[in-house]
């Protein structure tokens, strides 16, 4: 049957077609050219009658079914513009996931730098703070930061992520209330997610500085106020199109917007709380070493990884050249910061202290955050080098002021965030210095550093921004801390502090069943340590 079918098709193809069209895909019946006679019979004259030869007869085509015709035509693929939106959105959300994972880094780092008896408390604070940040930023923070308002503060029309918005439209095509973000062509939800993880980072910075003596409830309330009110106000000045942005202040990924704001709030919290019991005795500083430098080191590595979302992700577009450049400058500053802190601690403290190496790496990463898109690799090296040196001296500086910061958050985020913001005005290559330093119309934009021939054009706005954001954050966070201290009290009792906040605040232990270390350092007494830093070396460690 198969052979016969093939033969029939071959015959049909050899036949001369008529001008009448046939419907595609439908085989027509054939008609014989002669009157049919039974095969093998003879005519009256005795001659054999051959078998009839069948030839195809074209039949006029009938109109095709519209639905079938539509199904037969392949659907048009996505346009170039649609593909760009998809790729940009994919990059932004992946970067947001990396920044979110930094919460794990903060958990590990802060827990390792603190004492065993407070591990549960530190973990709980770092875990719940992002949940609270999500609600606060969604309810009001995002609107105050990015909704159209005035030069000082955003409007309330974007509360709960409401309000007109036609993202991913950009530039003049954008119609909505979040015009400060009209430069990035991703959906509003992606914009919110990326900004949310930044806001949560500011709150986690505070957690480390107030560790081991703050009431759990007070920290939660302060985190809501910081993310919902204080952080968005100063953020609007810079990223929301406010007065600092119009003045020419630049902060690409948040040395000031995120890190300095978190650092200032942390500094005020540590100041209002006072030092931990036993930290400062007989006019000197007593080391209260962290209990697990292994997980602190793991936390540092997680944060280092997360920074590849923090800084390159701030392009908010899948610009391969920009992403690669920013990743390299970010890594360079972090690497050199760690090396510089190692050498500085070795010379200044007598030992290559691991806690200083950790904070040196983070210092370099914080320092490069503001300028990572605007500087070359050599400048990134210098920025990381200086950050790694000053963080070591900053730790002892705050100890001399009796500002007790168990993890060095103020030294890393406040001091090096300030340095990084200044570095924009010193090392930036100038408008159009890199292909991505242009606006939507292709006009060259960007900061121009003093050492790159820009004079004080950029440096002056950077100084004004540092002072104004610092002053505002100190004022607002101080009001929050004073109000909490007057109403709820912000510090646990001395008994709870000595026993540990794990038992006093949470009724549980992080290492239940393990043998506990017995020594004065665990009770806040004077140790025989030689180091003044968070994870310092002591004879009782």
UniProtKB/TrEMBL annotation:
Annotated compartments: Cell membrane; Membrane
Membrane topology label: Multi-pass membrane protein
Transmembrane segments: 90-114, 126-147, 192-212, 219-240, 252-274, 286-310, 322-349, 356-374, 380-398, 410-430, 459-484
SUPFAM superfamilies: Ammonium transporter (SSF111352)
Coiled-coil positions: none
Positions of region (Disordered): 17-51
InterPro entries, per database record: Ammonium/urea_transptr (IPR029020), Ammonium_transpt (IPR001905), Ammonium_transpt_CS (IPR018047), NH4_transpt_AmtB-like_dom (IPR024041), RhesusRHD (IPR002229)
Keyword Ribosomal protein among record annotations: no
Gene3D superfamilies reported in the protein's UniProt record: Ammonium transporter AmtB like domains
UniProt entry keywords in alphabetical sequence: Ammonia transport, Membrane, Transmembrane, Transmembrane helix, Transport
Biased composition (Polar residues): 30-45
Domain Ammonium transporter AmtB-like: start-end pairs: 90-511
Domain of life: Bacteria
Cited NCBIfam families: amt
PANTHER family linked: AMMONIUM TRANSPORTER, AMMONIUM TRANSPORTER SLL0108-RELATED
Family: Belongs to the ammonia transporter channel (TC 1.A.11.2) family.
Protein name, entry field: Ammonium transporter
Source organism (scientific name): Floridaenema aerugineum BLCC-F46
């Amino acid at each position: 049957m198969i052979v016969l079918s093939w033969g029939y098709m071959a015959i049909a193809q050899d036949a001369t077609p008529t001008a009448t069209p046939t419907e595609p895909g439908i085989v027509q019946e054939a008609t014989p050219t002669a009157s049919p006679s039974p095969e093998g019979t003879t005519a009256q004259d005795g001659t054999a009658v051959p078998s009839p030869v069948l030839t195809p007869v074209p039949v006029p085509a009938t109109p095709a079914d519209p639905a079938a015709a539509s199904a037969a035509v392949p659907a048009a693929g996505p346009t170039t513009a649609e593909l760009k939106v998809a790729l940009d959105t994919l990059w932004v959300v992946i970067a947001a996931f990396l920044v979110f994972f930094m919460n794990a880094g903060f958990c590990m780092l802060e827990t390792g730098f603190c004492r065993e008896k407070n591990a549960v408390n530190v973990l709980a604070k770092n875990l719940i703070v992002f949940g609270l940040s999500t609600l606060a930023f969604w309810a009001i923070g995002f609107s105050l930061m990015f909704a159209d308002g005035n030069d000082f503060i955003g409007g309330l029309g974007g509360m709960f992520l409401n309000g007109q918005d036609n993202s991913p439209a950009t530039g003049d095509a954008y119609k909505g209330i979040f015009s400060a973000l009209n430069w990035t062509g991703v959906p509003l939800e992606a914009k919110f997610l990326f900004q949310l993880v930044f806001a949560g980072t500011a709150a986690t910075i505070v957690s480390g500085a107030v560790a081991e003596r703050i009431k759990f409830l007070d920290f939660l309330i302060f985190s809501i106020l910081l993310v919902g009110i204080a952080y968005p106000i100063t953020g609007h000045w810079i990223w929301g199109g406010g007065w600092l942005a119009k003045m020419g202040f630049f902060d690409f990924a948040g040395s000031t917007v995120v890190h300095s704001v978190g650092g200032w709030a942390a500094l005020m919290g540590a100041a209002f709380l006072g030092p931990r019991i036993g930290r400062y005795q007989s006019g000197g500083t007593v080391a209260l070493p962290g209990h697990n430098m292994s997980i602190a080191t793991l936390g540092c590595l997680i944060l280092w990884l997360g920074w590849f979302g923090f800084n390159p992700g701030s392009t908010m577009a899948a610009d391969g050249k920009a992403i690669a450049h920013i990743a390299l400058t970010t890594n360079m500053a972090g690497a050199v910061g760690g090396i510089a802190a190692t050498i500085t601690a070795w010379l200044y403290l007598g030992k290559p202290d691991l806690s200083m190496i950790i904070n040196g790496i983070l210092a370099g990463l914080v320092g490069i955050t503001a300028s990572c898109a605007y500087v070359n690799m050599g400048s990134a090296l210098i920025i990381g080098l200086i950050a790694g040196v000053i963080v070591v001296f900053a730790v002892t500086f705050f100890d001399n002021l009796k500002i007790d910061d168990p993890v060095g958050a103020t030294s890393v985020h406040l001091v090096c965030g300030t340095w990084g913001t200044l570095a924009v005005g010193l090392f930036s290559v100038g408008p159009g210095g890199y292909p991505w330093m242009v606006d939507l119309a292709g006009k060259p934009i960007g900061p121009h550093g003093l050492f790159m021939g820009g004079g004080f054009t950029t440096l002056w706005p950077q100084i004004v921004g540092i002072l104004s954001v610092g002053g505002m954050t100190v004022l607002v966070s101080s009001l929050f801390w004073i109000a909490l201290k007057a109403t709820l009290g912000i510090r646990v009792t001395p008994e709870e502090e000595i026993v540990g906040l794990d038992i006093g605040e949470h009724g549980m232990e992080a290492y239940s069943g393990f043998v506990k270390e017995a020594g004065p350092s665990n009770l806040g007494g004077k140790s025989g340590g030689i180091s003044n830093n968070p994870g310092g070396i002591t004879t009782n460690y």
